[in-house]
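Figure 6 in text form: structure in, sequence out.
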């Protein structure tokens, strides 16, 4: 199996790029956030309270979560059930925000993500995919951009939705998030030694996608299955 790991700081465009790369290669894009939500749904259905860390820790090992394509749609599976319709409910969101902080939940999900990567060609993005989750990935990308560029992107995103935003405040929040992610004790954000650095500050989404596809071809010989 071929695994592509994309890491980088918040606002670098990892998910957007990872989805486009996966589509171009006909790989599965592993939405790790959706897997945390599926875990939350499992816990909620088992009647476990969001603030009961001990019961969450004890129960999470029983969850079987995977991702596959069905009829052209990416489907998150809990056991054999497609749980896509339930992942954005208020109850699941509330459970996910609490349960994701329980170390045993993360341990179980990393195990499930590794099992998925062992059986499928995957593109996975996050902050410790190349360093912790998929240390043997054939292709590792560290996607970044300057704080200023990431702040501008976020500012435009918010203002296009009609929300008020202050560019300087967004930039300060991003810089603070970077510091927290890079200095946290468990799985800090860092570039894997064998990762290729891609700075997207002066690149379009399509240019970044093509750059990564070129890296994939160079390292694995795999070329895109269709135009992304």
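Output sequence:
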């Amino acid at each position: 199996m071929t695994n592509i790991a994309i890491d980088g700081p918040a606002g670098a465009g990892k998910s957007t790029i990872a989805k486009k790369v996966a589509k171009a290669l006909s790989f599965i894009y592993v939405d790790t956030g959706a897997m945390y939500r599926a875990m939350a749904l499992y816990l909620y259905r088992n009647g476990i309270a969001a603030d009961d860390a001990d019961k969450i820790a004890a129960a999470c090992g029983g969850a079987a979560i995977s991702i596959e394509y069905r009829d052209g749609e990416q489907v998150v599976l809990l056991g054999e059930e497609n749980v896509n319709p339930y992942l954005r409910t208020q109850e699941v969101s509330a459970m996910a925000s609490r349960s994701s902080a329980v170390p045993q939940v993360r341990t179980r999900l990393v195990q499930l993500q590794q099992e998925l990567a062992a059986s499928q060609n995957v593109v996975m993005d996050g902050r410790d995919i190349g360093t912790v989750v998929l240390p043997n990935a054939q292709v590792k990308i560290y996607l970044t951009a300057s704080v200023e560029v990431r702040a501008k992107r976020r500012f435009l995103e918010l203002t296009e939705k009609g929300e008020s935003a202050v560019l300087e405040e967004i930039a300060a929040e991003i810089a603070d998030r970077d510091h927290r992610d890079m200095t946290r004790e468990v799985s800090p954000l860092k570039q894997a030694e064998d990762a290729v650095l891609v700075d997207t500050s002066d690149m379009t989404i399509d240019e970044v996608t093509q750059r990564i596809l070129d890296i994939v071809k160079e390292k694995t010989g795999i070329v895109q299955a269709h135009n992304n």
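Caption detail: DSSP finds nine helices and eight strands in the chain.
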